## 1
Amino acid sequence: MQIALGTSSMIAEGQGDERVELSHARARDLSRQLGDDDGLFRALWGLSRFHQSRGEPVASYELGQQMLELAKSADDPARLIWSYLALGQARFWRGNPAKALSDLEATIETCRLNPDSSDVYMFGQDPALSSWALVGPVEWILGRVDRAVRHGGEAVELASKAEDPFTHAFVLNFAAVVHQLRGERERALELAEAAIEICTERGFPLFMGFGLVMKGWALSVDPNDENGVAQMQRGLTFFQETHTGLGGPYLLALLTEALRVIGREREALTAVDSAL
């Protein structure tokens, strides 16, 4: 019950919501008391999501290591899938793209070999698609730009065929990131608007905020048009209301760029200070 409550809070309120931590911490403690390794594993996953979202990748990584120990001791491919994903995401945000890529590829391969071993509904997202989504930005960081675009496109195509709107919105936003990094405003706008449409229908505030910032950046080309900045500021409000710290500096950097386009230099400096 505690895990189900925590997972529902992740989707409806954002992974950084304090109810995510409270529910999963309670589930962890109860599982340890009862000797329930399955419940403990699920609780550790939820806590890793909370700490990652709050911008605490070291804590998220340590929880991922605990998950991996449980997975290996049980020789359970389902647990290995989620352990590799937790570690891959934590290493990505800790600034270790090479090892992150290894973990994400291990997630994808383990899912391929064990197609019935991932419980999307219990854990709140599709692990293979989530890994595909992150491979694009990781490849870009590693300097493999063409591969980044290809992986992003493949992730979007796969997500469009899956019946998982939460992961679909996640994939669209990270595909948009790759095109933003390449300065490709038109494609970034298309992907962001697709994510916003899903989030509007389903009510995913974190991904809504991210998508709005991406859309605003894509629109911020005319020094006489402040609509892009307005979209970004609206998106940041959504983002901040989910108590998410992770990715905030990146989004504020995009806002800084957009503010400079329209000549609001003082506000741009304030955004830089906030990002730092």
## 2
Amino acid sequence: MSERSLRPRTARSAAVARAGGPGSGVRTQPPNPIFRKLGPTDQGRLAAHLLRLDASDRQMRFGGSLGDRSIRAYCERIDWPRATILGCFVQGELRGVAELVLTGADFPGKAELALTVEKPFQNRGIGTELLRRILVIARNRYLTTVYMICLLENQEMRHMARKFAARLVIREGQVEGKIWPPWPTYLSFFEEAASDGQALFRATFETAVPDIAHSRPWKGAA
């Protein structure tokens, strides 16, 4: 896969219902968000985000209806050393998440990917940007294959996966997408490191001067 393969293949608006494909409405851009990795101390924030998903978004994320207790149990069972979870924070609240979980012990490895964006923040480019950034992380972990599993009716997720050159196969009412990240480069390592540093700086800055930090609009993903 080429250097450009981890960029969206189209300039159409991204990230919509249930993590971001083409949507039916146009919404204003959110205040400039922060994208940063989550850790065990963020378990409560992750649970709160997933609990805010409505019934249809829970169906799309977990492949079935999941109650509040089951969502909390899911968050408690996360194997953090094997998971990389990237969050999108809007005005200090976690509104979107990309979860990348290793599926085996082989090296180079493989991983499964899942995305969620809360409904009031869909159609704004958040899902596509989360996917782009988490694929850079996958690349820098020397992962050879990233799997994206979604329900057959989740047209939005399928559309977004195709933007990143995913190969989609329908199996037993589900769609399995495969993305093959290219080998990492100095530029990809630098991009991840710069993103981590920017997130740390902005999180500190927003705590000190929240009104100024939120004043710049975000352009969103292409």
